[in-house]
Amino acid sequence: MQNNYKLGSKVIMKKEHPCKTNLFEVVRVGVDIKIKCVNCGRTIMLPRVEFNKKIKKVVEE
Length: 61
Hints:
Blueprint: E1 10-13, E2 23-29, E3 32-37, E4 43-47, H1 48-54, E5 55-60
Antiparallel strand pairs: 1-2, 1-5, 2-3, 3-4
């Protein structure tokens, strides 16, 4: 997967969040990636390497 996401991008992850959605918004980009669930608003922080493995596709930039 290429790094074609940036701050504010909407991404679909492979695993869904417990609130039954897999759509997230990228809130912070750096060594770690912080994503926010679009449905419930919870934030998750992942190392960039792990995020690149778990991302399915970028919906909008």
